[in-house]
Design brief:
The protein is an alpha+beta fold. It is built from two helices and three strands; from the N terminus they run E-E-H-E-H.
Length: 71
């Protein structure tokens, strides 16, 4: 299973996008974070929290598309 990522527009200090990530384990979570920072430098600045749980798969295309819609 891949991480499930939810996006919500937020106004918190200098950040305007809240990213919520649910993944099956820490390795899955940090692998996703590293990939995300590489693909979207300057867009995602920090990951402050996480929920580790098993969820349905989310493809790269899906979360890329979601990010573009929210950005």
């Amino acid at each position: 299973n891949s991480p499930v990522v939810n996006y919500a527009p937020r106004l918190i200090g200098k950040f305007d996008l809240l990213v919520s990530i649910k993944s099956k384990d820490l390795q899955d979570f940090y692998g996703f974070v590293d990939e995300f920072r590489t693909n979207f430098p300057g867009i995602i600045h920090s990951f402050d929290s996480m929920l580790v749980e098993e969820q349905i798969k989310v493809s790269t295309n899906q979360y890329t598309e979601i990010l573009k819609k929210q950005a």
